[in-house]
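Subject: Interface between my chains keeps coming out wrong

I've been trying for a while to get a sensible model of this assembly. When I model each chain on its own everything looks fine, but I need the whole thing in one frame so I can look at the contacts. Pasting all components below, labels as-is. Any help appreciated, I'm running out of ideas.
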Amino acid sequence: MSLPLRTRAVILSVVLFFAFAMLWEVSLGKGTGSAANMDPEYAALMGATAKGASAMPGPLEVGAQIWDHIMDPFYDAGPNDKGIGIQLGYSILRVLVGFGLAVAVAVPLGFLIGMSPLFYRALDPFIQIMKPVSPLAWMPLALYTIKDSIISSVFVIFICSVWPMLTNTAFGVASVRKEWLNVAKTLEVGNFRTAFQVILPAAAPTIMTGMRISVGIAWLVIVAAEMLVGGTGIGYFVWNEWNNLSITNVIAAIFFIGMIGMVLDLCLSYLTKLVTYSE
Amino acid sequence: MSDSPTENPSSASARIKVEALAQRFPAPDGDDELTVFSDIWFTINPGEFVCLIGHSGCGKTTLLNILAGLATASDGTVIVGGEEVVGTSLDRAVVFQSHALMPWMTVMGNTAFAVKSKWPKMGKADIQKHCQKFINLVHLTGSENKKPSQLSGGMKQRVGIARAMAIEPKIMLLDEPFSALDALTRGSLQDELLSICSETEQTVFMITHDIDEAILLADKIILMTNGPEARICEIVENTLPRDRTRNNMHTHENYYPVRNHLIEFLVNRSASFQEELSSPDYDPRHPPVVGPTAESPGEVRARA
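Reply #2:
Try treating it as a single job with all components included. I did that and got this:
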């Protein structure tokens, strides 16, 4: 084979995809569904009687559903029937607001911690205890104090995004090369200019890596948070479709969640590349 | 600090006087102090090129950092142009051993960073022009927009020198600037530094391990004994004429006397200097000055 690696990888990806889809289709065992030997009432409850098959859709049904969503993403037919674009939009908005607030807090605070060994040590126990807490554990506290489910979910996003950025910023700032600081010192560069023209660019790749980790976690957490608070968002959509027993929509939603997560990560990785320097 | 880059760097204010300088660190075990060096006295006159030679661990870099204002001495003072050194100053530029360029800035950016620090009110075009002059001086014309990662080791160190020269300091402090370079690159950079410094009559204090480098560049070579408790052993005046070059200096009759004197110091005397110290003739305030020539290879000429 003299095809370039890239082409071969694409071909293999396509082959794997179709193999998976075939396996999926075959494993459903169309026709004689499990409903045949069920109690009719239970079968009705399972939504299996109509087709005489399981509610599990095949890849073609899911594909068609995804296509429908893509063709009409922004319809709004009442609180329980909104287009997937609107739901994803709510989730993205919450993630961006929570993440933006986290950047505004974590980067300056990380700077302080990284520059001051005193703060580094003093705040370390708090960070170490807070960091491993599941962000959803904050939800009841947030709901009780904020008394607003939307803001509470934004708060949960904030709290889960803050830690990776905080620790990465502090680490990046603390490990700026001594010699660069000495250059700034011998040139009598002021603190402000040193912070923005020496420390910030030197630590930027580490800070951006922290942001990339944060946005990934935030996107993981928003689905769970919206399942809890309900109302709008892709997490609520998934839970609502589960209640509707529309497995097709649940799978479609999984696909969209993955796509958006990938796009968010690509954006951050592009930004990281912009600030990365080679020595 | 002046607002125009036109003052003469070799004015009398470039005289450095080091008086009774000592550096002690708390020893890792117990409450005893470790004395790196003590009772260091010497003077660097304006326009002079002075090299400091000594083995690793005698505190050369610490001494340079104190001169730069990056470190504080435990005892003694450094007086530059009649004023005691407290902290760093734009009158003293440092060329670091590891070039210390900011990797996210271009050659021009690194130089401009220094120029902007010295003359904050200078316009963009003027900064550009001023930097260009010094980039040309170190023969990096055409590489202005390259990042340090695109440059060779020698070119990086050239940028380091351009950055230091661009702020037109009264004194340049160089910490083994060429030690990480290969012999050929080192040679050509030494030639360049020599021609730049004799053109501008720059006052320079440089640390080196390389005896030939010291003989080529220095007017005066300060010999430091081994640490801990390092002292100045001697001050060697370079008896070779100032128009020496790397290619012709070994043919001069004084070359080998100077060189042998320095090697003798590094190999034997730097370690056994404690005995010389106890001699009644030794006065740390006025270390012996020698000027080895073909006629009198090791005779003490005077006391500094």
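Reply #3:
Confirming on my end. Residues 191-229 of chain A form the longest helix (39 residues).
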